[in-house]
Amino acid sequence: MHRGKGMKFVGDSRISAERKTFIPKDYSEYPGKTEAFWPNFLLKEWMVGAVFLVGFLCLTIAHEPPLEKIADPSDTAYIPLPDWYFLFLYQLLKYTYASGPYNVIGAFIIPGLVFGALALAPFIDRGPERRPSKRPFATGFMLLALAGVTFLTWESVAHHDWEAAAEQGKIVADAEVDTEAEGYKLMEANTCLTCHGNELQGGAGAPALIDVELSPEEIKDVIQNGRGAMPAGIFTGSDEELDKVVEFIDSIESE
Q: 4 in a domain, yes or no?
């Protein structure tokens, strides 16, 4: 009697009789192609991207982002500034053909065309060559995109008033300002609060007037002769009223 004679095998209908695993096509027979795009090549790209992502996350943890003061919806003079990797788009929206009535062009159409072309570049230029000189379309388009982003970022950085931006976002200590004081009313009458804020917290490129590190004589000189973006001759009151304003500013201290 042979072994296994008379035995019967019963299969489960829920399990396929032939289980085929996904095996990428062998490209060794084709010159210039060594592996399948999916999943071999794409998996390598994802792994490299994951390494850079982890490195970027480590940088964000090690270096805390600079914080500004609490957002004030009433401060219409505040000029927001995006992070460095969006500065080129920020600069693009400053040009006439991409702002105002053409804002849709600068915000959607131009970025959509550029990023869409970058996403389609690997599928448009499917040449097997790896040398940049042998792939003029892909190389030229990438160099053009890199040059455009670099130029716009540089223009944004070069023409931005960083001192005013740092001053408008500077975190200042809270102070109790006596709005009924004569010095405060004189500042209000001479439009000083338009730039320095109703709570003297600063704004519109003007510094805060809390804990001013100037002597009364220096404060008086700034009011009369101006400094930075502040022009001279704004205060039109008498010398006695000027002294009251200087005394009031010098008395404001943080809590």
A: no
Q: Judge if 152 and 190 occupy the same domain.
A: no
Q: Are 223 and 217 in contact (CB under 8 A)?
A: no
Q: Could you give the CA distance from residue 174 to residue 104 in angstroms, rounded to a whole number?
A: 41
The domain containing residue 108 runs over which residues? 82-159
Binning the chain into helix, strand and coil, the percentages to the nearest 5 are 50, 0, 45
Task: Please say if the pLDDT value at position 15 is more than 60.
Answer: no
Report pTM.
Answer: 0.50
- Annotated binding-site residue? 58: no
**Distance (Å) of CA 27 to CA 20, 41, 43, 117, 187:** 20, 12, 17, 28, 79
Is 159 annotated as a binding-site member?
no
Query: How far is residue 156's CA from residue 160's CA, in Å, rounded to a whole number?
Result: 6
Q: What are phi and psi of 230, to 5 degrees?
A: -85, 115
Which of 23-27, 214-218, 233-237, 246-250 shows the lowest mean pLDDT across its residues?
A: 23-27
Q: At residue 206, what are phi and psi to the nearest 5 degrees?
A: -90, 140
What's the CA dihedral at 8, 13, 18, 24 to 10 degrees? -160
Is 196 a known ligand-binding residue? yes
